[in-house]
Amino acid sequence: MKYKDVPEIVLAFEQVNALLTKEGSPLPANDTELLAVFEKWSLEDRKVTPLKTIQGVIWKQGYEAGELVGHVYEDVASHLKNWHDKYELGIFSSGSVEAQQLIFGFSEAGDLSQYFDYFFDTNTGQKRDWETYERIAKRVHLPASKILFLSDVVAELEAAQKAGMLTIQLVRPGTEAGWETIAADFNEVEKMIY
Description:
It is a single chain. This protein is mostly helical. Among the domains are: 3-64, no CATH class; 124-194, Rossmann fold, CATH 3.40.50.1000. Helices cover 47% and strands 9% of the residues. It is built from eight helices and five strands, in the order ααααβαβαβαββα. It has helices spanning 7-23, 31-44, 49-64, 76-84, 97-105, 130-139, 154-162, 186-193; strands at residues 90-92, 118-120, 148-151, 166-170, 182-183. α7 links the parallel β3 and β4. α6 packs across α7. The longest helix is centred in the first third of the chain and has 17 residues, at 7-23.
């Protein structure tokens, strides 16, 4: 596949130039330098849309070929199925919408993407900006106070709370508790919402 035949990649490359210009960084002179920018951002774990778009295109090939499988914790599948019958569910990730759909569509527990009504990525805004959560509330046509936001990242919880959302920190293995309301898994979340 040639990248110039894939519209998402062409757009991502254009977004790189716009982002570098905004940051005052030199623009890549050729494809090799452009790929070096993506590699640098990947190593830095930058949460920027063009990088996430490129990762999504690569992941799509891997998932569809059966080379990749999305990891989910044991409690996730049953709760998503149950909650989908009662609530509208959404994901907000720094990974592209397509990457989210692939991870959940090709998960260890089968296709879980069907249980989500909404997918949001950095095209909606940055995860640590409270205005982003206001945009999400508008798009789902709910007051922010009626939305429960789960995250393991305190700065994201702060932003969502500032926008008026209810918040719970998911403290999975490797995550440090740092929020007023915490849950170790979806079983604990369920006890809190009923």
